[in-house]
Each structure stands twice: as structure tokens, then as C-alpha cells.
Design brief:
With about 300 residues, this protein is an alpha+beta fold. It has a single domain, classed as Carbon-nitrogen hydrolase (Nitrilase/N-carbamoyl-D-aminoacid amidohydrolase, 4-Layer Sandwich), CATH 3.60.110. The strands form four sheets. Strands 5-4-3-2-1-17 form a six-stranded mixed β-sheet. A hairpin with a 2-residue loop joins strand 3 and strand 4. It is globular and about 50 Å long.
């Protein structure tokens, strides 16, 4: 059985004005759809700049309820172009309670499902714990008309346990909307190590689970409003890896790009027959994985 889908990855730089970003995304979604994309994936927190470089209570005003104004916009676009659309929004769940939430729309515009980011970083220039409560929806794939999507968000992409749980729950591919980049004081060698670690980790998820992986990062430089750092140069390099970790497509690090790639979902079945990692798992010996550390 042939089951190939065309995927559009939208890697773009962002500005302060939300309306401008949404207009730009709308044009890129249209372009991907006209090029035959059936699934379009946007980067993390695409409506705005990456606001987590500082801790500022005024920035909670960027958050929206789900459903809300943005889901209305993106749902209408999914319906108009008959695509499955993966978005990443700043969710206001209740007064004082916020999440970093991926929302997936099916081809008729309805919300097929949501995923709340589970792993929340707290590092210089990435002060996400100030803004986001850890997700409580678990690692549950989202069923759509073109397949079952294992959607996670950015920092989640470093955790093999998360990828495995999505796989075991039936995900046909893993998707990571992302916002990650370099601080300018890092050496060229360190920047290279960081980028390669990011790519290798996600390609390893593809290999270990025998399924494709989609990572969509933003690009461009965004300043640190506090002046404590030199801001973030987002490293782009959005890519798609096949079920053996092979790179099917990759964007540059510094250019707005609509990356189109065809993914053969049936190939996962063949790869899992050749490399039966799921068959040979010793699930009777993995109980200690639920511990913080084994003393």
C-alpha cells in the first residue's frame, strides 16, 4: 500500500507585530498548499517573537484561549486549503494559568487535537517556566484525516522517553515545532556542536522508533529586551528525517524557507521489520525509568 503525504515546513523570522507575522504565515501556508502540501507545520510560538528571553508579566497579554481568535484564523486556513495544519500557540487556560500548546486542525477546519508542552526549560534567554505550566495531556498522538501525528514542542525533542511514548501510542510520525538558536558569545565550534546535537537527537528518535521526524525551527535574530544577552540567532535548519534517520530535506540556517518534502509513511513498516526494536524491548526491566535517579 502506498501512503505518501506531502509536507510543508514553514521556517520564518518574526517581528514584534503579531498581525504582520500572521499575514506572513498566511501567505506561506497558501504557497505550501498550492505546491501540493497536505500537511503544513509551523514553528513554535509563531504568532510573535520568542518572548521568553525576559520575565515580563505584560507579555502574558499575548496569550489566548483555545478555541479563540487564532484558532479561528488557522482553522479557516486549514479548511480553505484542505490541509492538516500544525500550529503552536500561547494558551490562556484560566486566569494565571498558561500553557505552550500545539493545536492541530484537520482539513475541514475543526480542531483535531491539542498538545501542551510537557518539558519546560529555564535557562538564560529561555525563561519558559515563568510563562508556561507543564502540560497535563500526556503524550497522546492526534488522529487526523491524513494520519496519526505525534506532536510535541521544542524542549520535548531532547527526551527519548517522550518520543517512545508517542510511538507506542500509535504515532505515524513525530512533529516538533521549535524555537532554538545561538547566543552570540558562543564560539563557532560550540555553535556547531549545539546544532549537530539538536539534529542528531531527533534523527535518533527516528531510528529508535522507526518513523519519520519533522522539526520546524524559526530563523533570524531577535534582541534581548533586557540587554543582558546579545539576543538569540535562531539557527533554522528545519528538517525531515526518515525512519532510518536519513535526511529527506533540510533548510538553511538563516533564510525564510517553505520546505516541501514527500514522506512515505509505509516505509516505517518495512524499517520496523528489518530493525525490530519494538519487538526486542525488555519492558520487564524498565521500571527504574520512572525514578529521578538510581542511587
Amino acid at each position: 500500500m502506498n501512503k505518501t503525504i506531502r509536507v510543508g515546513l514553514i521556517q520564518q523570522s518574526s517581528v514584534q507585530d503579531v498581525t504582520t507575522n500572521i499575514e506572513k504565515l498566511t501567505q506561506n501556508i497558501q504557497a505550501c498548499a498550492k505546491d501540493g502540501a497536505q500537511l503544513v507545520v509551523l514553528q513554535e510560538l509563531h504568532n510573535s517573537i520568542y518572548f521568553c528571553q525576559t520575565e515580563n508579566t505584560e507579555l502574558f497579554n499575548l496569550a489566548e484561549p483555545i478555541p479563540g481568535p487564532s484558532t479561528q484564523i488557522y482553522g479557516a486556513l486549514a479548511k480553505k486549503y484542505k490541509i492538516v495544519l500544525v500550529t503552536s500557540l500561547f494558551e490562556k487556560r484560566a486566569p494565571g494559568l498558561y500553557h505552550n500548546t500545539a493545536v492541530v486542525f484537520d482539513t475541514d477546519g475543526h480542531i483535531a487535537g491539542t498538545y501542551r508542552k510537557m518539558h519546560i526549560p529555564d535557562d538564560p534567554a529561555y525563561y519558559e517556566k515563568f510563562y508556561f505550566t507543564p502540560g497535563d495531556l500526556g503524550f497522546q498522538p492526534i488522529k487526523t484525516s491524513i494520519g496519526t501525528l505525534g506532536v510535541m514542542v521544542c524542549w520535548d525533542q531532547w527526551y527519548p522517553e517522550a518520543a517512545r511514548l508517542m510511538c507506542l501510542a500509535g504515532a505515524e510520525l513525530l512533529i516538533y515545532p521549535t524555537a532554538i538558536g545561538w547566543e552570540s558569545s558562543d564560539s563557532a565550534e560550540e555553535k556547531k556542536r549545539q546544532l549537530q546535537a539538536w539534529i542528531i537527537s531527533q534523527r535518533a528518535h527516528a531510528v529508535a522508533n522507526g518513523l519519520p521526524v519533522i522539526a520546524v525551527n524559526r530563523t533570524g535574530h531577535e534582541t534581548d529586551p533586557s540587554g543582558q544577552t546579545n539576543g538569540i540567532q535562531f539557527w533554522g535548519n528545519s528538517f525531515v528525517a526518515g525512519p532510518q534517520g536519513e535526511l529527506l530535506a533540510e533548510a538553511s540556517n538563516d533564510t525564510d524557507t517553505n520546505l516541501l518534502v514527500d514522506i512515505d509513511l509505509q516505509r516505517s513498516e518495512n524499517v520496523r521489520r528489518w530493525w525490530p526494536f519494538l519487538r526486542d524491548r525488555r519492558i520487564d526491566q524498565y521500571g527504574d525509568l520512572t525514578k529521578r535517579f538510581i542511587d
